[in-house]
Amino acid sequence: xxxxxxxxxxxxxxxxxxxxxxxxxxxxxxxxxxxxxxxxxxxxxxxxxxxxxxxxxxxxxxxxxxxxxxxxxxxxxxxxxxxxxxxxxxxxxxxxxxxxxxxxxxxxxxxxxxxxxxxxxxxxxxxxxxxxxxxxxxxxxxxxxxxxxxxxxxxxxxxxxxxxxxxxxxxxxxxxxxxxxxxxxxxxxxxxxxxxxxxxxxxxxxxxxxxxxxxxxxxxxxxxxxxxxxxxxxxxxxxxxxxxxxxxxxxxxx
Length: 254
Hints:
With 254 residues, this protein is mainly α. The chain contains 13 helices and seven strands. The protein has helices at 2-8, 27-36, 39-43, 64-70, 73-82, 96-99, 104-116, 132-140, 163-173, 196-200, 205-214, 226-232, 239-250, and strands spanning 48-53, 57-61, 129-130, 185-188, 191-193, 216-217, 221-222. It has a three-stranded antiparallel β-sheet. Strands 4-5 form a two-stranded antiparallel ribbon. A hairpin with a 3-residue loop joins strand 6 and strand 7 (221-222). Helix 4 (64-70) packs across helix 7 and helix 9 packs across helix 13 (239-250). The protein is globular and about 50 Å long. The protein starts with a helix and ends with a helix.
């Protein structure tokens, strides 16, 4: 218990956060990106219980409207890109490794959307708690602390426009929450995601678009988690973004 409490209380220093914007932030664009990047899936409308497993614990994704009230813009950039909260402790599970590559423009749009959210009486009030197995995972390195995830040292000011570069950008920021390119990845206890590159290469472009728009895999199958994520998040990708992802994942590997 003492070791896990010490680990949870560890603090981190982060560099000053500045954004080099090429366009004015837009809450409307940010709302779409909040879906595409998975913010809504994890945090829900008012925060939610991300997972709750006996003996492991309960993990809460906080209410974004209330978080936006309590954080200034620089602190929001820090927690998104570095996984470090305003008290300098680490977030848990939040994919800061993926968000660290987001362009300054996309980060600013997401923050503008968060600022536009209105706190309501209905909010998740439960707190993150750890059971004995969860505390063991903390001290043994089995729990992903966001601040310890690798991060991009030089994210771009604007997202790339070339097809393959845009596809790589979107795979990093959206698909990598659950998938790795060429190996399986444990998303959460009991759920393992297949490698995304060979999986995508079994779909032609029209089939891939159908999967991301409807959540229906080949053979009109429903998939665990992916089908729901496709309908709630990836269905908000535009045509050029879907084509870029498919092209990147089907390009010869370097």
